[in-house]
Amino acid sequence: MGTIKVINDESHFQTELANASTRLVVADFTASWCGPCQRIAPIFQQLSTKYVKAVFLKIDVDKCQETAAMQGVSAMPTFIFYRNKTKVDTLRGADPTALENKIQQYYGSEEGEEADAVAGHMDLQPFIMKAQCECLNESDEHLLEHCLNSGGGYLQSDCDEQLIISIAFNQAVKIHSLKIKAPADKGPKNVRIFINQPRTLDFDLADGYTSVQELQLTPEDLEGNPVNLRYVKFQNVQNIQFFIKDNQSGGEVTQIDHLAIIGSPISTTNMGDFKRVAGKKGESH
User: Fold this and answer.
1) Which helix (H) or strand (E) holds 23?
2) 13, 55 contact by CB (below 8 A)
3) pTM of the prediction?
4) What does 195-217 look like in DSSP terms, one character per residue?
5) Where is the PITH domain (predicted)?
6) What is the rounded distance in angstroms from the CA atom of residue 178 to the CA atom of residue 229?
7) Which residues are catalytically annotated?
8) How far is the C-alpha of 245 from the C-alpha of 263, rounded, in Å?
């Protein structure tokens, strides 16, 4: 059964965010005098029992004025979603359907649980803007989107073994590693990685440009084990492109069953800095 944690003060709130680590946190900023807040409260309780791997917090804005002010809450109810102590989305108003949709968007999949094994990082799939992703030389039947979700099919090349994969994020992220599942013979081998390109590179440019990193993958790497990147080079990524030059067997068809990008969103606000300059509890900000 899900449990909603009632927050007492700012210190308690920060502790719960830290304890949640990469799990989704859903914070309900509410007030006892707010009618819509009271109407959606039973729905919030039901959702906490349905999405048991998420952390559900309830914050009374009158009792926790400092937290409400620091999180920019001005209307109730406001639901704020966090991953890795980072605010990833906000929903204002008592809309049960919209609330559950947001939870589903950031909740993650069973595959995402494996990402938790990479300490302090998560599967960045919820932050991928699929409409702005692109793959050159993909098969008509086996598209890029098939490999971005576990169990969603697979990506396969068309005319030859090469692929260019372009993935865009809805906010800047840090990228720590990759997890790739692919057949031992058809999986990618030599991969060149580029970031923050204004448009998708073509094959000539991808072959000639200076890459941020080059990988030579082994069959063991294609079993979903973390493939570490040069983390210092991937600290502010809006888009990432992969030029897959060949596959393990040298054949004409390259296949990727699942591609997971592991990292964390970049927080646009440093909560610690805010805490140092905030006034006393109860003061207006």
Assistant:
1) none
2) no
3) 0.75
4) ES-SS---HHHHHHSPPSEEEE-
5) 113-281
6) 7
7) 34, 37
8) 24
